[in-house]
Every structure is written in structure tokens, then in C-alpha cells.
Fold this protein.
Amino acid sequence: MHKVLIPTKLDKFAADMLTQKGYEVILDASSPIEEQVAKNPDAEVLIVRSEKVTKEIIDALPKLKLVVRAGAGYNTIDTKYARKRNVDVMNTPGANSNAVAEEVVSLMLAAYRHLLPADASTRAGLWEKSKFMGHELTGKTVGILGLGHIGQLVVKRLSGFDIKFLGYDPMISPARAEEIGVESCSVDRIFAEADCITLHIPENEETRGMINRRLFEMMKPGAMLVNCARAGIINEEDLRAVKAEKKIIYCNDVYPKDAAGEKSVADVADIMMPHLGANTFEANFNAAKRAAEQTIAYFEQGITNCVVNKALPDGLDAGFQKLAYVLTSLTRAYLGNENNPTRIETSFYGKLADYAKWLLPPIVAAIAKDFAVEQGPKEAEQFLADAGVEVVNRMVDNSKHYGEAMTIDLFVGGADGLFKAGARGTITENNPMISRLDEFDKLYFNPAGNHLFVEYADEPGVIGRIAGILGEKNINIVDIRAPQNVKTGRSLSVITTNVEVPEMLVEKIREAVNATKAFSFSFEG
């Protein structure tokens, strides 16, 4: 008999379903998770909502085999440590999506029609009809950052209002966006043109603080911003500085910590909710049902489709997943991170051909920041299919003697048809090694650290000019690779620096040497 601990307010359907299958279930939402773990050290399964599953929690459950997050996001769970302890972590993607999408619509309508202050005023005996003159949602332009489950449902739920939809998602091709009724565009255009903007992106190193003063200042006077995603993606101080001048309407449902107490955003939020996005009976039931079904399928059928921290298969060095990630990231940077790939082609040489499907997740993670490397091949395939991205794993000629190497090409649909770039690499002395980037061969550089890439028409003195500009800012050059393509007469300088080269300096270098491409690239090896 497997023992399941559910230390959260979850629909009892999960407990009933598991009990009927012979599981011992402890369902208790009244006491902290730490207390319940201490009382039930023999639990093999932990089903949680927003509770933090830390290293200490995992260590306190020596028999733990599975953690199920009854919801989509799992940033509250230490998935890496769980993997070290051979504990699988699952989520239930999509279970809460409709609840969040409906909350977004509710907030937009409530803010436009002043429902909360009008209710309070009328209950107080006042009749302030003229004070609460509102706006109609019909005919507005709505911008959506993140077109996953929730973003796409927002489109469906708002479609009856004759909305024009603008959307940004690095993983959704323009063709796929068009299928769901959204015009794919840049973040800048969304903030410049949308009447209402809703955020549905994860919080990570790349997105933290990305909604900043530059974007706020682009917004139309009186535009609305709705955040039901994560608190950290908004720079709160920047919003505070611009809100009054731009008359921004801000609706918020997320905070750094889900707990009682004063909220720092209170002075800038027109509507504040206590993280109610998934707080519906229907969403709670769906999440409970999914959590129970997945637990039963995990133990009875060995189904692990929703495990987000899968271990590597026997025989595959984790370094090759890291290599696939960095090759894809570098190729994406070369093409321009604003360009969404519509096709991916891969070549895996030597024994890597046997692990092609396991190398797909890091490729997807490199182009979609809300996809975790730890997710499995099936999830990667489904993710790309939903985004309308085609994947081709090419047959290889091992007579080229590339050894255990791989080539990853990304294709982008441009106005004049498809254009592409690719990179090849391998592992040398336990370090990733990039041997080719697009048309530039024999690079042979380790991508770990900070690098500046500059492509230009080959002529004397270019590297010297670049070095001079870097020197003016006290940026030290650690290494230089500068292969030339004789056929095209172009060169690519790959300059490793002691610190990351800021974007402003990259632009200065681009102009100084008339570069066709210039970008910085950093990778933690």
C-alpha cells in the first residue's frame, strides 16, 4: 500500500479516488506542511498546491518517490534536489488554465467599469454615477505575452468582444498564432499599441523585471496591465514612477509570497486579488482529479509523461544535453532572438543517434523559456507540435568521423521565405566545444563564459577597432577566434571577455565596424 500525503486544500475527490484504489491517504489543510511531514515520514507521495517543497521537506521523507504539483507551475519545488534523491516531480498542466483566463476577463471588465469602488460607494448610500464613467472592452486591442494554455484561452474567452489580438511568444510560430486569431509581434509593439495587456509568462532569469520603465513609457495613456502570472516579472518601482503620468490601470493577482500582510504593490494596483487565479471549485476539482489519476498511472502503469525532472537514460552523458542547449541558444542568438523558429533540423553523429529524442528537450528549452530541460521527449514533441514547429532528425554519414557530435539548424520564416542558421559541436575533455557557427567553420571554442560575436566584411584593422572600444570600457579580452569564409569574404570574430559586453557597447561596435551581426552571448558552463 502506497501512502499519500496531501497537506493542502485540495478537492477531496483526489483522496477518495486514491482511497478506492487502496492507497492510504492523509488529507489535511489545517496545519503547516512541515508538521505533517514530521508526522508522516513514511509517505511515498506528496501532492501539493502552492506549498514549498524544499530540500528539508524531501530529506524528511526517506521513502518519498513522487511529488505531484496540482497545477502547472512548479517553481516552489526543488526539482533538482528531488532528482538527486531519485524523486520524480509531476505537474498537472492545463488543470487551472481556464480559471486563470476567466479571472483575466473579470479583472478587465471590473477595472473598465469601476465595479469595486462603485459597489462600495453605493453601499455607503452615495449616488456617484458620473464619477464612475467607464470604458467598453468591445473593439479594443488586447496584447498577450505568452500564448500557452492560459494565453490561448484568454483569446477564446475574449473573442466575443470583437477584440484585435496582438501576441508575443518565442515558441509560437506566426502561422500558429494566426490559427488561434492572434497577430504575432514584438513585446515593444504590444506595449505601444494595446489597450489592455495581459501577462502569461514564467518568472526566470530572463524574464525577471522585464516589464520595466522603457515598456511602461511606451503604453498608451489609460492603458491597462493585468498580471496573473508572477510578481517578479514586473519592475514595481518603474511602474510606480510612470503610472500617474501615463494613467496606467494595473490589476494584480500575484505576489512574492502568498501570505497575509501589507503588500508593496498596494499603492499602484487599481485592483488587488489574493492570488485567486486558480481558486475555483472547477479548477480545484480538475487539479485534484489529474493529480490522483497521474499518481495511480505512475504506480500501476509506469506512466511518467508529466514528470518534469526526468533523469537521463543510461549511457547518455548529461554534457550532451548541455551541448544541445548551448548550440540551439547560440544559433537563436545568431538569427536574432526575436525570430521564432518554424522548423528545426538535427544531425546526431556516432552513438548520439540512439539518444536523439532525449536531446530534443534541451533544444526546446533553449527557444522556449517556459519549457524545462528536465521535461521529457514526449512533452518536447507535443510542445513543438502545439507551437506549429516542424522537427526533422536527419540521417547522418558517420564516415565523416565527427565522433560524438551534433548539428542543430533553426529555420525562420522571413518575408522572402525561409532563412536558417546552424551550429555544430561536441564534447572535448568534458567541456562543450563549438566547431562551427553557420558558414564559419573551425571555430573550436568553449562557450562557457562571456562572448562577443561580430560578423563583418573582412578587412584589416577590424579586430583592433573592436579591441580598442572594449579597452575604453576596461573590458579585458580573454580569447579571440576569427574564422573567415573565403567564398563570401566575411569574417566572424568571437571574442571572449572577462565580463558581459552591455548592449549599448555592442551597438557602438556594430556601427564602428559596419557589422552585419553583433551580439553578446553568455553561458554558464
Residues 73 and 91 are 7 Å apart (CA to CA). The longest helix spans residues 281-301. The longest strand covers residues 417-428.
